[in-house]
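Example 5.3 — 3-keto-5-aminohexanoate cleavage enzyme
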Amino acid sequence: MPATTMITVAPTGAESAKADVPALPVTLDELVRTARACADIGASVVHVHVRDADARPTLDLARLTDTVTALREATDLVVQLSTGGAVTDPEADRLRALEAGPDAASCSMGTVNFGSDVFLNRWDFIVELHTAMRDREIVPEYEIFDLGQLTTLARLLDKHGLPYGGHVHCDFVMGVPGGMPGTVQALAAAVQALPPGATFSATGVGRSTLPVMLAALAAGGHLRVGLEDTLTYGPGEPVRDNGQLVARAAGLARIAQRPPAPVEETRALLGVRDRRPARA
Ligand code: KMH
Ligand code: ZN
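Solution (predicted structure tokens):
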């Protein structure tokens, strides 16, 4: 059982509209302020999707690069870019996101129904992402939406070797309509199917947020929280801001006697290369 809990904040995502969720950070300034606040409360990783001037999801490389730079200047958080983007994003744009030079990036392990959409992740594209991340010394977080995707991960590591840094870390994204349910049983099955030595975080979308968080803590896992996955704090109560979700995760982690991992510990665990600018 790890002594601490790595908390990732996923503050924005690509699915919700600012008009529907006013608390969503969509400008660079909002994102940096959110990241700072969440770092103070206990987050050590930020999973980043950016929005354009009209608050629509984008993988524009200049925006991604500016965002990585700004987050790195303002915080010590591990900056993890999404290569999943939105379900409509082409593979070339998703791959190009790595050129923004993040510390880490998501690498989804298979195709999954995503509500009435399809989140497409072909085997050849998975291999391309995994290999490009290693070439660029970017640490992948393998996103697992369904149990069979852990079989894909085993095949990937067997045929194409370990990621940059040598450590395998997965994130179970549970409760997506079309993926594995956010239940204790599904989480236990996923934990059993992890590659030897791998660590995991988990996040439960919507109503599965709390059951997944509690199950992950009990199973020795780490946590991902944020408005990307969770819009209501309780029945009929909209989330006030991302900090509220990080505070709840940090509180439960302390109750589980696995307090939030300091950022330097998270950097060492994931094996990220230190790209932070020298500060005065
Ligand atoms: N927005 C989803 C289609 C990731 O960031 O890599 C994909 C997603 C996963 O959020
Ligand atoms: Zn994401």
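Remark. Residues 7-270 form a domain with the TIM Barrel fold (CATH 3.20.20.70).
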